[in-house]
Amino acid sequence: MRWLAGAGLLMAIWPHSVSMNSFILSETLFGFLCLLSLFLLTYALHRRSVAWVTVSGLGFALGALTNAVLLPFAPLLGLYFAYRRYISARMLAGLLAGAMILPAAWMVRNALLPPSYGDSSAGRALDTLVIGSWPDYYQTYNASLKNNPAAVATMTRVVQEITLINYDPRAGATEIAQRMGNHPLEYARWYLRKPALLWGWNIRVGVGDIYVYPTSNSPFKDNVVYRTIIALCHALNPLLFILMIAGWIIVLWPQQRPIDSLVASTLMLVFVTAIYTALQSEPRYSIACRPLELMLATFAFYRGSLWLAHKKTSNRSKLI
Q: pLDDT for 71-93, tens place per residue?
C-alpha cells in the first residue's frame, strides 16, 4: 500500500500534469478518459461482468474520439486478453462492441461529408508521420521564421511531402523511404531516440519546459517548495523512463501472470509509445499517460527492492 501511495503522490505533484490543467486542452480530457477506461476495465475483470466490460469499451471509445491514436487499442487489447484467456468470449464481444460503436457511427458521419484532406484524423496522422520523420523539424521550423534560407528550403520540402502523402499516400511513403534510404544510419539513430524523446521533459510544441502556453505567476518559478519539486522531478525523469521499460519487461514476461489491470496499463504505455515513435515524438503527447508511467516505474522499483531483499536473505542463509 505504501508503494501505491508513493506512486499516487508522485502523480499528484508531477509538474507537467499540474501545469497542463491551467488550460482547456485535449490532453487533459484524454488522460482522464484513459484512466477511467482502465478503472472500468479493472472493475469488469474483477466482477467478470459483460455489462461493465462493455461500459469500459465505451470509455475507450470516448478516448478514441478525443484522440484518434487510441482507436485500435481496445480491440487489440481485447484480442490479447482473449488469447491469454484473461477474458471470456462474451466479455471480448462486449469490449469490442463498446469500443467500436461510437467510432463506427462517427466514421459513417464522416463518409456522408464531402472529402477533405488534412482536416480528418487520418490526415493529421499522415501530417505527423512526415513531421516525425524529420529529426530537426522544430529547430528548422524556428529558423525558417527568421528567414534562414536553408531552413526555408527544408520547410518547403516538408510541406511538399505533407501535401503529397495526403493526396497520394503511396507516392508520399515512397518519397519518405527514398529520403531515409540516403542516410539510413542517421534515421535509424533518430527513431531509436524517439521513445526517450516522447517521455522527455521539455515540451517542444509549446513555450518549453513544462508549459504549453505562456504561464504567469507559476509557483514552479516563484515558490521555493515548488521549485524544489520541479528540480527533483526533472532529475528523476530519465530514471523513471528506464524503470518504465523495466516494468514493461517484468509485466509482459511470458512466464509471469500479473494482475490483469496491470497488464492493460502496461500495454497502453507500449502502444502509445510505439504509435508516437512512428509519428511525432513530443513530450506534450505523453502527459496524458504520465500517471501510468509513474505507476509502472514505481512497480518496477518495488519488484527490484523485493529481488534485492531476496538476494540478501539468500546470501545470509549461505553464510550460516
A: 999 999 999 999 988 899 999 99
Task: Provide the grid cell at 160.
Answer: 511538399
Asked if residues 141 and 205 have their Cβ atoms less than 8 Å apart, the reply is no
- Confidence band of 320 (pLDDT split at 50, 70, 90): low
In 162-257, where do the E strands start and end?
A: none
One-letter amino acid for residue 12 of the chain: A
Burial category of 278 from C-beta neighbours within 10 Å (exposed 0-12, middle 13-18, buried 19 and up): middle
- Counting Cα atoms < 13 Å in the Cβ hemisphere of 95 gives 28
Task: Specify the pTM.
Answer: 0.90
Q: Which triple of cell numbers denotes residue 247?
A: 516494468
Contact between 68 and 27 under an 8 Å Cβ cutoff? The reply is: no
For residue 211, which phi and psi values (nearest 5 degrees)?
A: -110, 130
Residue with cell 516505474: 297
Q: Do the Cβ atoms of 53 and 94 come closer than 8 Å?
A: yes
Residue spans of the domains in the chain: they are 2-113+183-319
CB atoms < 10 A from the CB of 299, how many? 24
- b/e burial code for range 24-45 (CB count within 10 A of at least 16 → b): ebebbebbebbbbbbebbbebb
